[in-house]
Amino acid sequence: MTVKPGQKGSASVEEVPDSRTEEGALLVRGRAVGVCGTDREIADGGYGTPPSGAERLIIGHESLGEVLEAPAGSGFSPGDLVVGIVRRPDPAPCPACAAGEWDMCRTDSFGERGIVRLHGYGSERWRVEPDFAVPISSRLGHLGVLLEPASVLAKAWDHVDRISQRAFFARGRALVTGAGPIGLMACLLGVQRGYEMHVVDLAMAGPKRDLVEDLGAHYHTGDAADIDVDVDVVIECTGIGAVGRSAARRLASGGIMCLTGIMNLSPTFDLDATALNRNMVLGNMVLFGTVNAGRRHWEQAATALAAADPGWLGGLITRRVPLTSWTEALDRDPEDIKVVVDLTA
Ligand code: BGC
Fold first, then answer.
1. What spacing in Å lies between the alpha carbon of 265 and ligand 1's midpoint?
2. What percent of the chain has pLDDT over 70?
3. pTM for the complete prediction?
4. 281-308 burial string, b = 16+ CB within 10 Å, else e?
5. How close is the Cα of 35 to the center of ligand 1, in Å?
6. CA of 32 to the centre of ligand 1 (A)
7. Cβ 127 vs Cβ 23: under 8 Å
């Protein structure tokens, strides 16, 4: 699965040489790759960087594969299911990367497999370093392809938990904006923490509502500002400033709001920064952004998926396409939640 970053419409299937041992001691047979908004943005020419010296990038950062070769002492054996971590520390490295927290990198020279500077996992065979591979239990099986999006929300919630230690905090209700794969994962992880969860989305009915309600959470349609409860946590998953601003109106004093979405739109001046300042000061509020995930978040995500209902997780995967026609995964179907490319077909 390759693209030429910066060139819209360049996504295709290509024969590429086998990856070299230096790219990782584990040789993996790719099973599946999930496709997300970042992949669509790369395919639209709006994001992504090929490895140095290359024109094209092997895309795919939501991986799942089966180990074919593993050196003794690596902790992995042939037949194990694994997912590859996305980010690698910057080569310098910056103080955060040097401390092992590459998801908090202070420069923009890190690599991300399938996104910036490093080939991804969208191939029939790939390699990964054992330290950047996460084992998947055979019970989870094909659902392991959901680990990467889950890791992003595991980080969001981990940071909410840590920020909440600053003072008195009520772990009561939380609101998620957007019921795509990221919003649904945010809801699952909130339910697992014991929050009364609310999710707001534009869709009136259909699988999104069902998936939210199957978790015992409340589904709302329309504007987040109009929902009838105030919340202690907001997890914003649309990347649309106006949606975040509406949701912020439901945040109780002492609340924490986490931004996880990115939308590639031209900026609009639709925010009164002085009013935001006043509300945040008078309400002791925290607003923070989060991207990517560190090693502990991948492990937290694996625990969260193992504790979830496999039937519910399976409901997130609404479409599968074979490798040969993977570019169809980039099309947006209104019924899609998570689209997965089957690398074995
Ligand atoms: C990925 C992250 C990555 C971010 C920015 C997201 O889609 O899940 O791992 O850090 O894009 O490149």
1. 17
2. 99
3. 0.97
4. eeeebbbeebebbbbebbebbbebbeeb
5. 12
6. 18
7. yes
